[in-house]
Design a protein that fits this description.
By secondary structure, the chain is of the alpha+beta class. It has 5 helices and 3 strands. It has one domain. The radius of gyration is 14 Å and the shape is globular.
């Protein structure tokens, strides 16, 4: 079902608020975690939704995943999506990880460019 521009804006604000709570929880619990963002094409919503958890470095990202903290981030994402009234069959499939170090090396620190490139490679 396509959302109107008004409904898209409302959904976006609600999603951001819910993901902000998840982000703040993760900052307190996960070493190296910096911030999160999301990416969505509302023409293919909610299937196109991606939640990207950003670490400072590749080493910190790898360490967090090795410690099983990726499961915590998946759970926090699922909770945020439920709170935002977004139903996905497998929320964990919409969770991705990245890091500042890789963005700086590959995309000169330009996150907009990096996310757009990743989005286009998924199509």
């Amino acid at each position: 079902m396509l959302l109107s521009k008004r409904d898209q804006a409302r959904q976006e604000r609600h999603l951001i608020a819910c993901l902000t709570e998840a982000c703040e929880t993760a900052k307190a619990e996960i070493v190296g975690f910096q911030w999160l963002t999301h990416d969505v094409d509302y023409q293919r919503f909610p299937a196109s939704l991606r939640v990207i958890w950003i670490f400072a470095s590749q080493a910190e990202q790898d360490a967090a995943i090795a410690k099983g903290q990726d499961r915590l981030m998946q759970e926090l994402t699922a909770t945020a999506l439920r709170a935002a009234a977004i139903q996905l069959e497998t929320p964990a499939a919409h969770v991705h990880f990245d890091n500042e170090q890789s963005c700086l090396r590959v995309d000169a620190g330009n996150w907009q460019q990096r996310l757009a490139r990743q989005r286009s490679s998924k199509r």
